[in-house]
Design brief:
about 300 residues, alpha/beta, Rossmann fold, 2 domains, 6-stranded mixed sheet, 8 helices, globular
């Protein structure tokens, strides 16, 4: 089997110890079991293969992208397997493990300085501008994850797996928003399978732009870019839930200690929001959310240290 065949078909588990009584069943899709430890492997494969099929990426071409880390690592993995060069623009705002992982897989990585290690709108815009500049070089393909037409389709397989693994019972789906590609791809499929499914999205409470608030710095990596993603449509979600960085960190630590689930901060935010929905729906319903990536990506950060 080609290494890319190991993407997807990830397991799902029911959360038991962090979920209160009288709450719905909460299932979590273990996307941290993908080859690079992230759901972004699905998207990266779809983006690269889409570019190849349209002739946008030639055999001697270079993929160029801006990233908080997981997309870059996933693209590095796919490019290494397929034999393409990769140039990444990232920042010291994102974990050292992600940056080192990209380099280990052969990516050329440029790091831009951040505001005290925090994700801000200004930082993301600088990263995008620099990647766009680099993509002007000959034989370059700009992956442009916020706008790429293939990115959302990479998550269709996740939705189909969730439906099968939940015994065809999904009353609500919850996911944090970065590019909005995942929620777009999953919601489209789930709504075809159950037109009554409730879709909730999560954003940092420090940067509540999806509900009309002002952007602000936060430390939930991979989500909350500080602006409304270009593909976002209000009808994508029935509800937007805000979770703070500290709340997300605390739940992430609890998941590790009480459930044995070792994941990143966006997963903690997802679970908190899923419990909110599940507590409203009550027993007899099923809420599904996502373990976006592995906690191994954050060992150099303050996520798993005592505050």
């Amino acid at each position: 089997m080609n290494i890319l065949g190991s993407i997807g078909s990830t397991p799902i588990m029911e959360l038991r110890r962090v979920v209160p009584k009288d709450c719905s069943r909460v299932l979590i899709k273990l996307e941290n079991q993908n080859p690079t430890g992230s759901m972004k492997d699905r998207m990266a494969q779809a983006v690269v293969e889409g570019a190849i099929s349209r002739g946008q990426l030639t055999p001697d071409g270079t993929v160029v992208e801006y990233t908080g880390g997981s997309t870059g690592t996933s693209l590095a993995f796919v490019c290494a397997a397929k034999g393409y060069n990769l140039s990444i623009v990232t920042s010291d705002a994102f974990s050292l493990e992600k940056r080192d992982h990209m380099r280990a897989l052969g990516a050329d990585v440029l790091e831009l300085p951040s505001d005290g290690g925090r994700t801000t709108k200004e930082l993301i815009n600088r990263m995008i501008a620099k990647a766009k500049e680099l993509s002007a070089a000959p034989n370059s393909f700009f992956a442009d994850q916020f706008n790429n037409p293939d990115a959302a389709s990479g998550y269709s397989s996740m939705a189909k797996e969730i439906w099968a693994q939940s015994d065809h019972k999904v009353d609500a789906f919850v996911q944090s928003v970065g590019t909005a590609q995942c929620i777009t791809g999953v919601a489209e499929v789930l709504r075809k399978l159950n037109n009554a499914v409730y879709i909730a999205v999560v954003e940092p409470s420090e940067s509540p732009v999806l509900t009309g608030g002002s952007p602000g710095p936060h430390k939930i990596e991979g989500v909350g870019p500080g602006f409304i993603p270009p593909i976002w449509k209000d009808e994508l979600a029935d509800e937007v839930i805000q979770i703070s960085t500290d709340e997300a960190k605390d739940m992430t630590k609890l998941l590790a200690r009480d459930e044995g689930l070792f994941a990143g901060t966006s997963t903690g935010a997802n679970v908190l929001a899923a419990i909110q929905i599940g507590s409203r729906l009550g027993v007899g319903h099923t809420v599904v959310t996502v373990a976006c990536d592995t906690g191994l990506k954050y060992l150099s950060t303050d996520l798993f240290t005592s505050r």
